[in-house]
Every structure is written in C-alpha cells, then in structure tokens.
Structure prediction request, 377 residues.
Amino acid sequence: MTSVQRLQVRPLEPAPSSSVDFGAEIADCDAAQLSDADFDDLYRAVLTHHVVVMRGQAGLTPQQQYELTRRFDPSVETYGHGHDKELLKKSVLVQDLISIPSVPQVQLIGNGEVENHEGVTAATLRHPTHQTFHQQPLSEAQEQQDFTRFYRWHIDAALYKLQPPKVTTLLALRVPENRTQTVLYDDGSGDTLEVPLGTTAFVSGARAFRDLSPEQQDFALRTSVRYAPHPYVWIKRARANSTGLGLVSEGKELPLTELPAYKAQEVATLPLVWLNPLTGERALQAHACCIEQLVTDGVALTDLAESRRVLYDLMRPGIAPKKVYAHAWRPGDLVIFNNRGVWHSVVGALTPADRRVYHQCNLASNEPPLGPSSLAS
Prediction:
C-alpha cells in the first residue's frame, strides 16, 4: 500500500549573524491544489513558523490566491481594508492599492509600468518610499550609495470597523535585480542591516514579547491599544520615525472633526498582546503608526506623544537587526504570513527601472484577535 505524501515543511536557516527563530519553506507543491490534509499542514506551518515560503507559484491566478487565502478564514470575503475606494483615496494608502477587477480582494502592487495585467489596462505602480513618509529622509547622495530605510512597520489591518486579517498572501511575479542595500536605523543606535533590493522584512511579535522584561510583559498584558477613527486618513500628513516604527508627534494628524463620518463603537481597541490559537504563544502586536491611546487597566493614556513613546520603547527591541528576516524574493514566490503574529515592512529605494509586480491578498476577519483574557488560568 502506497503511503500518502504530505507537505514537507523545512524551517528556514537564519543567516550567520541572525538570531531569527521563525520562518519555513514548503517543498514543491501546487498551492492551488492542496488537499484538506495538505492545507491542514499549511495552516499549522503558518501558525507555527509565522512566515511560510512556497516557491514556484507564478501560475497561481488571482482567483486561486483569493480562495487559498480564504481557506484560513472561510466565513470572510472582504478585503482587509474594505472596498470603500473613496475612503482609501483620502488615506496614506492611496498609492499602494490597485484592485484586480475580477477579484477585488487581490491587490496589484509593485513598481513600474504594467499593461493588460489581469484586467488592469494600464497602471503605474509605485514602490512606497520613505522619502514621502519619514520626517527626516535620507539624502539623495545616501540613496545613490544604496542606503535605505524600513518604510513602515505594521500589521495588515483597517483598524476601523473591520477585524485584522488572519493571514496575508503575497505572490511575486516580477522582482528587481538581485543586489543589496543597507538599511540605516538612524536613531543613534548605530544599527544597520544589509537586505536584498525590494525585500519585505518581518519580525516576530512572539519574540518581541518574550524579550521584554517581566515588568514590561506585565504592563503589556494589562494594556490595550485604541486606534484613531479612520487611522490612515488621520495620519496622512504625519511623518514617521527614522526606523519606520511609529510616528513623530508634530501635531500633523487631522483633527477628528475633519475625518470622514465615523461611529465611536466601530473605532478599534485591541489587546496589545495577542494569543496564538494553535500554539498558545503570546505576541506583542500593534500598528504603532495608528495608535491614538494606550489603555492600561481601563485607564486611558490620552497624551498622544507619551502613548507613542511608551509603545515605541516596547517595540523597538523587536526590530533589532539580528531579529529581522528580510526575504530575498524570487519570481514565483508565494509568501503566506501570520498577520496576527508578525510585523512587516516594505524596504528599499527602487528606480523606475526596478520592475516589481506582486499580487497581495488579505481578508478582514469576523473574529477579533485572542487577547490575554483568553489565556487558560
């Protein structure tokens, strides 16, 4: 009797200077044709290893990518940021998102010109650049020397009305040439990190929580994050720290009276620590750019600058160079990541000649993240 071949999951080997303790690669398979047993292995791999790489998936159609993403959360079908295009146009995300017409849950992202692509007649894709988002960007001379920055550390989530997606799938169809750039943290630490051009960088929320002091862990477990209404509209004029982690407090946020209409009950307040439903791991998970208040033991810290400072102090150790996995993209790579267990950032300074074409999909969940109150006593 022939044995059934199951998915082969191999943990990624960290670089010699790295202490990254997450990530896995799946041996050759067809992501569009996974049996229920195969998908169960994939589901466990994503929740265990957090970032899973599947090579050779260039033939995956947008419909198949949507269906695969939905298998992780079968009751949902709405794109993670919703489908209100007018709202998105008012936000800091406006340049990042072009929907595939036949499957609007799948976004076309990248850099450079595309024509007749999956129903998109023509589009100019723009790789997000820290030049338009950081308070003090690098000089032109520095970029010519291939220095760069983390653009924005974040989780994929609307943070208003919609619950954060459980996973994001990211499919590389065309990638820039294989060369490296050096990330400068520029925060007085002297930290730098060599990364592949156009990489996506990931860090582990579970590692970030484990590395906190006992006092910091206790504080984090008792704290929630209240996000601003329509946060990506609220921060459109604000600028980020040099590390890409959180914003500088300069009073540039839009007044709440100038935001699109919102309902107070739909403003997101989420735990600062999220529980992994499979492993029970606790992860420090927050979108530092969109925070309005920290709420500890029911008491709100209403000083925005202080809330940002406290959160930054908790999160900054998590992006230390040795803890960052910077994926070296190949055409056909499908990366599936646990959006409730990692933070990620676009990285790199691309020229118009650096062509990059990707399909991204995540779906707003109906289920809020599990918080510390879900921990077994």
User: Anything to note?
Assistant: The chain has one domain: 9-368. The chain has eight helices and 21 strands.
